[in-house]
Amino acid sequence: MAIDTERTGTMNRIGLEKGDYRGGATTLCQGCGHNSISSQIIAACYELSLAPERIVKFSGIGCSSKSPAYFLNRAFGFNTLHGRMPAVATGAMVANRSLKAIGVSGDGDTASIGLGQFLHFLRRNVPMVYIVENNGVYGLTKGQFSATADRGQVIKKIGENPFLPIDICQMGMNLGCGFVARSFAGDPKQAKELIKAALSFEGTALLDIISPCVTFNNRDESTKSYTWGKEHEIPLHDVTLVPAREEIQVDYEPGTGSMVELHDGSMLMLRKLERDYDPTDRLAALRVLEEARSAQELITGLIYYNAEQPVLPQVLHQVQTPLAALPVSMLRPDATSLEALQADLR
Amino acid sequence: MTSATISRAPATGSSADRAPRVNDFSMVVATVNGSGSQTSNMAIIRALFRMGIPVSGKNLFPSNIQGLPTWFTIRADAGGFLARQESAELLVGMNSATFLEDVRRLPAGGVCFYADHFSEGLDRKDLIYYPMPVQALVRELAPPKELREYIANMAYVGIVSRLLGVESEMIRSALMTHFQGKAKAVETNMRMVAAADAWASEHIVKTDPYVVRRDDRTKDKILVDGNTAAALGAIYGGVSFAAWYPITPASSLAEALQEHLPNLRTDPATGEATYAVVQAEDEMAALGMAVGAGWMGARAMTSTSGPGISLMAEFAGLAFFAEVPVVIWDIQRMGPSTGLPTRTSQGDLMFVRYLGHGDTKHVVLLPATPTECFEFGWRAFDLAERLQTPVFVLSDLDIGMNLWMTDPLLYPDQPMDRGKVLSADDLARLGSYARYRNVDGDGIGYRTLPGTDHPLAAYLARGTGHNEEAQYSERPEDWSANMERLWLKTETARQFVPAPIVDRMENARLGLICMGSVDLALREARTQLAREGLPTDCLRVRALPFTSEVVEFIEEHERIYVVEMNTDGQLRQLLQLEAPAHAARIGSIRLNDGLPLTADWIRRAIRSEEGG
Description:
With 346 residues, chain A is of the alpha/beta class. Chain A has 12 helices and 15 strands. The radius of gyration of chain A is 21 Å and the shape is globular. In chain B, strands 10, 11, 12, 13, 14, 15, 16 and 22 form an 8-stranded mixed β-sheet that branches. In chain B, strands 3-4-2-5-6-7 form a 6-stranded mixed β-sheet, sandwiched between helices. Chain B is an alpha/beta fold.
């Protein structure tokens, strides 16, 4: 099944070339998984024909959080504080519900210093693609353990990590996230399709992408290394996103795949691989995560999907107009109302 | 009824011997926290107010839900001085646990209303005692069990009103307001008020001189607490995003937003909200959310108290450095640390002014009354967007949670100032854009808002070092140029912040400087001092950075005292930095005991500094 996104030559449907989605030159290490993910974000936005001006980028602090400078120069962005991206993104997306948000964080930023904000963000179902570029290690401060580091992992100056890693996707499940996916920076095609699917989802779409740190945590025995990922990745299915306006050209034979319809009408095609997997089955999702954790398998794909939850601006019964764009006439009540209020204060 | 229903003989003659004291008393109501006495106290205050008598109420309450003692002070003053007083002449003793102590505090000639099942503390010969058969009246009226405690408190409303001369129709009208017109609730309470009133008129012979009489001194005033006024100010300032985390004494500000926003800011066409209020998981997140919304272009705020400000330090620095407009209310309570959550202070001034590491300086507004809370409520957004920076508003527990008689809230007299914002059309016309360029020489760049549909519009806001284009930069000249521009911007702020209020007296050589709620007691103290032959001038600072009037005032006066409610003399220290040539002669009058200052204390303190 091929999706023809190149049919207008180098221009996408809104007349932009891929170069219109690029960012500044990366300053991350050569071979860093994060660069690969930035490329897939660029490709996904280009292929979906999203206007960069309608996208907002968020990040915290760390290697991963630098990357919003390396994609979508024409999108606004906010490189916030360590572990505090969720709060800023929450306020921003409530203030302007018409924009699409991509948040990029790391395992230290999300699972260590920012765990609290991350969980509350999931709980509120703030509309944003939340990408965790997960490498189990602090890069910018030169190689300390994060909260997703493997138990028993050894770092020269520090020793052995005695603690269990936090599983980002299990956190997503626990907090009621309606889009929980895991991918691998070494599997760019899958990462791109999942990013596209996440961009087509209305609520918080959580993407835990194992993204090897080539400098500090790429030894073959590390579950966050390229070698380990290549050897242990077990895709749950083969994923392809068919955007809303495009014709679905392939129908799966019964029992060979399924489709998930996303909020904007696009379809995520899930071709069956070794096992039957239904991402709308919450118990199955919990089971597959737990089994993968105990067997140390890198399960990838769309783990859980539930489009039923209202997003935060809906919960808050907000007007459709972005709060940030309301005219003065809708912001300042008239003088009569103030007089009426004060009658009660006399 | 018990034998205690017969009034004891007054110690100092009968009311006939003494001139009546009209509209001039402080009364302390001693109750148990959580027993519902607030309704009773509010009824008395509103009734007095509606009789045209200047009145204020201050609640001295414990950090506790239920069971600990609480004291509510009501002051009526024909002259309109409504600060706390050091002692109250009238006591309504409803709490057996504190009654002995409460009686001990009464001055000679004081009046003690007491629940008549108390058996101790009734032996001071220099007091006038009036018993209140609270339990008997409750038995007689048999209110529903769940209302019993509330209704019991209405007994003192009836008896005190009878003895002072508070009009019962005004009590009814006050209860109508309190219960938002719910007639049944009003009647249930009024039955007790009437029964207690009738009992008092039958059984008590008035022997004290305290009376109230209808006057006309409140007709241009309102009764409101500062947190409600602040919330209304924010609403009329166009707040469209508020995030908060519960904390005493700031919670009632956010709760007032949630109470009034649905009425004032629902889109009539769709019934949907033109605002959002989010209760955050902590104060870090609360300010973080407000920063996100402010960056997006919404009028965004948060409200908190000292411990929350501590948590907000990191985001305050980010908002200062990334130049994001946001409004932060700090309803000050006593610190350091958890401190005294239910006591007032002015101890956050320095911390808030410099909140954040590195060279951070914030604009701070200092309201003194609920009326000013309203005004600064809307003005703070204009300032934040004009200066593209966080604006802190420092209120305190006394202003925020107590009921003040104050000037009416004035509808904003200026259109909203949204500051320097470029549209897509502007960008097309200009052909280039740099977020942090000092185009106008005032240190303030031009903002674009996310969603602006032009390829030049976007920038990556950040707390890291950046050049004019908001790109990451470690170049020394980029860093220092940016910091110099920020420094210039804080100088520019002086032109926009509210000027101080100066009040002068003839022949004054002494200059007093204050801020915030201290003003109330200081005005009264100055009147007393003037009467004693010591006229003073007074300057009330209303904002940081200081405006030029402040140093001029210091220069003009032989001697200067800064009167404030904190231990370190924080306003004084800031003034010493601002006017180093005069630093040595800026004196300090400060008290930090958790209670609002009194005029008597200030007068004595100034007297003592001035050598008698």
